[in-house]
Amino acid sequence: MSDFARGACGPVRVVWDDALTSYDFGPHHPLAPVRVELTMALARELGVLDAVEIVPCEPATDDDLASVHKRDYIEAVKQVSRDGRPDLRAGLGTSDNPAFVGVHEASALIAGATLEAVKQVHQGGAMHALNVAGGLHHAMPATASGFCVYNDPAVAIAWLLAQGVEKIAYVDVDVHHGDGVQAMFFDDPRVLTISLHESPRTLFPGTGFAEETGAEGTAVNVPLPAGCGDAGWLRAFHAVVPPLLREFAPDFLVTQHGCDSHALDPLAHLMLSLDGQRTAYRELHKLAHETAGGRWLATGGGGYELVQVVPRAWTHLIAEAAGAPVEPDTATPEAWREFVRARTGELPPLTMTDGRTPEYRPISEGYDPADPIDRAIMATRNAVFPYHGLDPLP
């Protein structure tokens, strides 16, 4: 069971509308909306959604989007949305970001869903809220990038700042650097952005080096070597994230949970298991309560193993947030397996685990300069810990 019973967590809301699956770049694109469809179906069949309240959403308005995006970019997306013609200046019409009719409406709805989730928490209706269709962290102020058109986590953070929230922490565990969110708040010391990702030397978008530190050390990057698995990833997480969150003491925690760090993901090269990812969700849940008064917005993100990984990972995320985690050895429901076979033609996973028991050795027990993971950890600590009055040495 989770360390936080449902009563301690308070109400948990999941923002969902079937129209969120309209964010669809076409049948051969890696970011297939079936992944969120299968996630919600699995969570429903396992009874996970019985522990939360499902709430609807409306599209983000132009003013909402303009809190982080240029208005001429929003107009360019709208034009593409009307005629489906590429606009390469806006980043639409590439293989990563194909142009399609309705792209503005689909993208604005995802941003609106994340905005609704953050409002649910900030306005007191929920302790935690989630949008598994969100987490489009690569979108830049004036261009689409990396499958992302509007940057929904950034829209939510900007809204919180506009409400007078003084300090917000954003933790991104996607295998790709959370470059768009970092760029939008790079010079704003009210926003601490922490991204753990595969090294920019081997993976898109080519940014996220430890030396990118932002205003007063509030941009934090942990670039991990290809091949890093559960033990190394968790070692890095614990060496960087908890001490910074405790020192920063945010009023609100926003997290992005791209599950493309999994060993089966076709677009990246880290080697985490589902069990390692589930462990990260538990740790972030704890930190939300310890450092941010429990105020927690969680989104999805990347994840391109559409059947074996994404549905199970994000079902675990919802269950953890609800304070009713799914036991790892739980069988996937037969009704869901039949739905997977009918919907995708693929064989579904049989249980909610990869059969791993993630363990790690804390950096405090010793630093190995020959280990590339330890070198990455120490590069990050040396770059940012002094800004926060923390000793970078283990």
Automatic annotation (TrEMBL):
InterPro entries the UniProt entry points to: AcuC, HDACs, His_deacetylse_dom, His_deacetylse_dom_sf, Ureohydrolase_dom_sf
Top-rank taxon, per record: Bacteria
Sequence ranges assigned to domain Histone deacetylase in this UniProt record: 29-319
Protein keywords: Acetoin catabolism
SUPFAM superfamilies the record matches: Arginase/deacetylase (SSF52768)
Molecular function per GO: histone deacetylase activity
Ranges where the record places region Disordered: 347-367
Associated pathway: Ketone degradation; acetoin degradation
Entry's Gene Ontology BP terms: acetoin catabolic process; epigenetic regulation of gene expression
Coiled-coil regions, chain positions: none
Family listed: Belongs to the histone deacetylase family.
Full protein name: Acetoin utilization protein AcuC
